[in-house]
């Protein structure tokens, strides 16, 4: 973590600790507010300080701007809430962070709606507002977003007579046809400990109508849309991608070197692909003569559609301004309104490739904003107008697991513990299958002789490794090449908890789980169900850190981009 960021964070924690020891809240000043921002890098803090100075000059309201590291947010907000020292406003919050504040009753849910109505509700992306809402209330004001994209080599597609990869069928056909001559059809993340793998898969899963949780609170990961999504992604990775546990860095490097015809990456790649960042330059043979060659020869697909999907869908992140429950409401409202109006162009200009405007009327300004780090150039001077137009519209098609269903806590758990990347990695290495054949229904006699029936049945997960048998919890994919489960009686080893009515496998009667029978290979949906369904039943304690804040984990891999320190995901969620 950069020293300046560490210093700011330490100062914030120290202030909170001192306040807590002092015993109670302080009187809030009517002409001053405290603002936390997760855009805490030095150059971005400088831009925000300039905007703040203009705000103070206009309104007379003083602003204490504090940069907060993304991976420390849960710890800091918990301490601040306990000490009665919450800030008035928090900026650049991902969707899961907004839901964390909601779950802990730390939000003012009246002021955001007033701000949006004042600025004009019809000037905001309807989808962004929807993702920031719950029970008819706007939880925060959506400020901008970034998108997950399918990038493809236009020159190779044109030569092969292929259509843009905007459906499962077209994507796989292109990967198969272009997987030749030392070039992989696609480079796809499969690393089990990388949240980038989770983001990439969620993009593909959403396209096929696969949801983490449905509106009834069931986890439908073993249902056909999700089974097909797991099968599709793992087939691409095992048959047409670069071998090995590809991650956020290696997928970009492979595509930049010209050794893959496609990849799935976030919009943060756009300035790098244009040669505007010296520590991440394209290295393909043609790129050495023209740093912008790869950008000029890359097509972009925003939304993807699978065979079970009702419409194209796209993974994306919306970041927002939140007003806290004990805020100086008047000052907070004026500040956020200013940031979303007079200061908005400078706000999205800090990183236009990753800050698509959620407000209408700023499209042309966004296109002209200079992007890059070591070199600066408007994206419109590099990318065709149709690509930029699709990027500007992408917040309107953003979809996310769990958020619309009110399961933000579950989303946080998946980002912290990464069960999906682990399952995908296990499918590719052969220790899991997307779906196992259904075993025959047990006879009435075997059901009567087993422990319990229906919702009281118990199962044991077993990992077979070189002839050794070891019980497994189901939360991990297991070290062996074959993961299986068997039913057992009361005298068996290491029983899992009984499966209750609310935790049953969606769409499958409980008595279809045999109490006795042959060992069968476990499939990914069942593994994830076992891992996740308890999270739907356990209520998180108030003010507990609910999630890992992994929504923008791409940033931790990019020097100068994000707030998370290198070294992988932070602690798992507490439940």
Please tell me what the overall shape is.
globular
Strand content: 5-15%
Q: Write the CATH fold name of the domain at 3-144 and 318-377 and 547-557.
A: D-Maltodextrin-Binding Protein, domain 2
Q: How much helicity do the residues have?
A: 25-40%
Major sheet summary line: 9 strands, mixed
Q: How far is the N terminus from the C terminus?
A: 27 Å
Number of beta-strand segments: 17
Second-tier CATH architecture of the domain at 3-144 and 318-377 and 547-557: 3-Layer(aba) Sandwich
CATH uppermost class of the domain at 3-144 and 318-377 and 547-557: Alpha Beta
> Please, what is the average pLDDT?
77
Low-confidence stretches: 1-26, 445-522, 536-575
Give an account of the 3D structure.
With 575 residues, this protein is of the alpha+beta class. 37% of the residues lie in helices and 14% in strands. α10 packs across α19. It is globular, with a radius of gyration of 25 Å. The model is unreliable at 1-26, 445-522 and 536-575 (pLDDT under 50). A hairpin with a 5-residue loop joins β11 (370-371) and β12 (377-378). Among the domains are: 3-144 and 318-377 and 547-557, D-Maltodextrin-Binding Protein, domain 2 (3-Layer(aba) Sandwich), CATH 3.40.190; 442-522, no CATH class. The strands form 4 sheets. Strands 1, 2, 3, 6, 7, 8, 9, 10 and 13 form a 9-stranded mixed beta sheet that branches. Strands 15-14-16-17 form a 4-stranded antiparallel beta sheet, with no helix packed on it. The longest helix has 20 residues, at 3-22. It is built from 21 helices and 17 strands. It has helices spanning 3-22, 42-59, 73-83, 95-103, 111-119, 126-131, 154-160, 168-178, 195-207, 224-239, 248-256, 269-273, 293-296, 329-339, 344-348, 363-368, 385-393, 408-417, 419-429, 444-449, 524-537, and strands at 32-37, 62-67, 89-93, 133-134, 137-138, 141-153, 262-266, 298-301, 314-323, 356-357, 370-371, 377-378, 398-399, 459-465, 468-472, 482-487, 520-521.
């Amino acid at each position: 973590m950069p020293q300046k960021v560490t210093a700011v964070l330490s100062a914030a924690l120290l202030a909170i600790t001192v306040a807590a020891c002092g015993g109670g809240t302080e009187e809030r000043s009517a002409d001053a507010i405290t603002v936390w921002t997760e855009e805490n890098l030095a150059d971005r803090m400088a831009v925000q300080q300039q905007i703040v100075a203009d705000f103070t000059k206009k309104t007379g309201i003083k602003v204490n701007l504090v940069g907060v590291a993304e991976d420390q947010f849960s710890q800091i907000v918990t301490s601040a809430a306990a000490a009665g020292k919450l800030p008035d406003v928090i900026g650049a919050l991902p969707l899961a962070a907004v839901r964390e504040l909601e779950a802990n009753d730390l939000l003012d849910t009246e002021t955001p709606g007033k701000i949006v109505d004042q600025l004009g509700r019809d000037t905001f992306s309807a989808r962004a507002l929807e993702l920031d809402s719950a029970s008819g209330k706007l939880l925060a004001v959506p400020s901008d977003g970034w998108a997950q994209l399918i990038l493809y080599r236009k020159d190779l597609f044109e030569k092969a007579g292929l259509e843009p990869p905007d459906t499962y069928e077209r994507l796989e056909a292109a990967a198969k046809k272009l997987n030749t001559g030392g070039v992989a059809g696609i480079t796809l993340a499969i690393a089990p400990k990388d949240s980038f793998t989770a983001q990439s898969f969620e993009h593909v899963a959403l396209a096929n109508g696969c949801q983490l949780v449905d509106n009834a609170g069931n986890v439908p990961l073993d249902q056909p849309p999700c089974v097909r999504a797991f099968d599709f992604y793992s087939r691409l990775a095992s048959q047409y991608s670069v071998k090995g546990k590809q991650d956020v860095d290696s997928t970009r490097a492979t595509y930049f070197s010209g050794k893959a015809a496609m990849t799935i990456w976030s919009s943060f790649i756009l300035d790098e692909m244009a040669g505007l960042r010296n520590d991440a330059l394209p290295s393909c043979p043609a790129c050495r003569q023209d740093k912008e060659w790869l950008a000029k020869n890359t097509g972009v697909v925003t939304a993807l559609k699978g065979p079970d999907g009702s419409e194209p869908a796209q993974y994306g992140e919306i970041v927002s301004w939140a007003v806290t429950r004990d805020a100086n409401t008047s000052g907070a409202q004026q500040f956020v309104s200013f940031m979303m109006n007079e200061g908005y162009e400078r706000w999205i200009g800090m990183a236009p490739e990753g800050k698509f405007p959620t407000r209408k009327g700023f499209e042309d300004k966004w296109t002209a904003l200079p992007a890059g780090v070591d070199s600066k150039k408007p994206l419109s001077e590099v990318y065709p107008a149709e690509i930029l137009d699709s990027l500007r519209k992408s917040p309107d098609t953003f979809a996310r697991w769990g958020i619309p269903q009110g399961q933000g806590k579950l989303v946080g758990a998946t980002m912290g513990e990464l069960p999906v990347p682990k399952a995908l990695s296990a499918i590719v290495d052969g220790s899991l299958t997307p779906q196992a054949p259904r075993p025959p229904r047990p006879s009435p006699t075997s059901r009567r002789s087993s422990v319990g029936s229906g919702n009281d049945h118990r199962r044991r997960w077993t990992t077979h490794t070189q002839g050794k048998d070891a019980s497994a919890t189901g939360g991990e994919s297991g070290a062996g090449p074959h993961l299986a489960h068997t039913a057992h009686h009361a005298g068996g080893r290491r029983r899992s908890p009984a499966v209750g009515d609310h935790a049953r496998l969606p769409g499958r009667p409980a008595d279809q789980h045999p109490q006795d029978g042959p060992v069968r290979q476990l499939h990914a949906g069942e593994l994830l169900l076992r891992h996740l369904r308890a999270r739907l039943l356990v209520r998180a304690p108030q003010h507990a850190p609910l999630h890992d804040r992994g929504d923008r984990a791409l940033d931790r891999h990019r020097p100068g981009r994000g707030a998370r320190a290198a070294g992988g995901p932070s602690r798992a969620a507490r439940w």
